Amino acid sequence: MKIDKAVLLAAGRGTRMREMTAEIPKPMLEVRGKPVLQHIVEGLRDAGINSFLIIVGYRAESVQNFFGDGSRYNAAIQYLTQTIQDGTGRVVELAKNFAANTPFVLGYGDILVAPENYKRIVDLPEGIEATISVTRGEDVTKGGAVFVNEQMELIDLREKPKPGEPTSPWYNAGLYAFRPSIFDFTAKLKPSPRGEYELTDAIRELGQSGKKVQAIALTGSWADVRDPEVLAKLNAL
Known about the structure:
Blueprint: E1 5-10, E2 30-31, E3 34-35, H1 36-46, E4 51-56, H2 60-67, E5 76-81, H3 88-94, H4 96-99, E6 104-108, E7 111-113, H5 116-121, E8 130-135, E9 144-148, E10 154-159, E11 170-178, H6 182-186, H7 199-207, E12 213-217, E13 222-224, H8 228-236
Parallel strand pairs: 1-4, 1-6, 4-5, 8-12
Antiparallel strand pairs: 2-3, 6-11, 7-13, 8-11, 9-10, 9-11
């Protein structure tokens, strides 16, 4: 089925950007003349998403003033504020009413992918409970190592594996599609060693519960706009 709702996470400041995020949150930093978040909204809209929930927090007004109700992007945009930054698992809980009983795409407001990938993520086949995007060539100790079988079905997901722990060539690329069943697993989350409620823990539990979580390898470019160096590189292209 084709998904027509998306939840975008844009609540964080992005402290590694230093003074660049003194006035705006990281997703509003510009890449090639447009905020990162605008690239994402337009890419998803062109893939068939017409209803967005943007989770805001730090400098929320800069996001809301820029996008408004979404009408100039031919989409409907709502906002919810994350008041306590206690992890991505908790953020997904905020999307419960918005999602209602329908599938939704979840994306991070600071991750850019080649636009053709959005068309793939909005297509959730029957029998697949969730889709997780993956990419190669990234340092999994800085993110999530995704373990899959030969059919690219999720077996395990480990956040920032340490030296000596099992590893994988597949890196969690931060773009997902979920059926509402994900809320059964985010509701049961306990704080991780970092003291946060991790979405990846919920996805692992979902995949190990007998439900099918499919990994899709992204094509083309992918970038986590995590620091000034990445931003400068993207703007030099």
